[in-house]
Specification:
It is built from 8 helices and no strands. It is mainly alpha-helical.
């Protein structure tokens, strides 16, 4: 994750999701999709790229992690013979076919977030909670179904994309040389940064929940201030949807941005493989 822990713990503005006419802060065009989502929805301040990436990475590593990473970087390129025998016998997959497989997994996870798991995908069905809230509404517990929805999708992404990344990495290893060295480096970085990544991604749902609770309390106050005998049940329902729907969509948008962010290492590996095999 490109953002620092400090950046991801910034507070919220008093407003709810900004209107389409409100000027939004600009994120760097090369920042991760999730950081851009958080920045453009005023959930965190734009992070200025003032440090070298290597310096930032060095600040994140402990002594043992730094030694392990250095040993990987100093190791020379190896050959396919370093693979176990059963993996040496398996023929490498055509990069174009591998790219189609990556696109398929991405499309399935996207559809799972937007509409529910597609038939035949093998993905568990994770349904968005009903738009109607229990009566009376308790701001302390109202977000719980959405937190479970978000966590379930995060687990689904983690399982699918970790396996996908390993599959692409294996194809680099089969080629040997610099591609195998890149695969080894990616394995080391995944092991080193996975805990930090999980910690930072876990902060996103807290941001969404804080904004949800703020909007819910405002909605309840407006209901209490309204004259009850002039509000029809249908009108109350429409008022509920008017404040709730943007938060439901924001939850999906955050998950889609997280999906794109989680995919970046795999897409980088795939690009390296394709560049080495431009005619396949």
């Amino acid at each position: 994750m490109p953002a620092s822990p400090r950046a991801l713990t910034l507070g919220f503005p008093k407003s709810t999701y900004p209107s389409m006419t409100r000027p939004l802060p600009r994120a760097h065009f090369n920042s991760s999709p999730l950081v851009r989502f958080l920045t453009e929805n005023t959930m965190m301040e734009p992070v200025q790229a003032t440090e070298d990436v290597g310096q930032k990475l060095g600040d994140w590593l402990n002594f043992r992690q730094a030694i392990a990473l250095q040993s990987v970087l100093q190791a020379g390129p190896g050959g396919p013979e370093a693979l176990p025998a059963h993996r040496q016998r398996a023929a490498p997959i055509n990069p174009a076919a591998l790219a189609r497989h990556v696109d398929k997994i991405r499309a399935q996870l996207t559809e799972s977030i937007n509409q529910g798991a597609p038939a035949g995908s093998g993905l568990a069905l994770i349904q968005m909670p009903a738009a109607d809230l229990d009566d009376p509404v308790d701001p302390k517990t109202a977000f719980a179904p959405y937190r479970r929805f978000h966590a379930a999708h995060q687990r689904q992404m983690e399982t699918c994309l970790r396996s996908l990344r390993a599959s692409v990495r294996l194809q680099l290893t089969k080629r040997g040389g610099h591609l195998q060295q890149l695969a080894t480096l990616d394995t080391a970085l995944e092991n080193i940064l996975s805990e930090r990544e999980a910690l930072l991604l876990g902060k996103v749902i807290k941001m969404l929940e804080k904004r949800f609770v703020q909007a819910l309390k405002l909605h309840l106050k407006q209901q209490n201030d309204a004259v009850s005998d002039t509000a029809s049940p249908q009108g109350v329902h429409q008022q509920t949807l008017s404040w709730l729907m943007p938060h439901r969509q924001a939850l999906r948008s955050a998950l889609l941005a997280e999906l794109d962010t989680r995919l970046q290492p795999t897409l980088g590996l795939l690009e390296a493989l394709t560049s080495e095999n431009p005619d396949t």
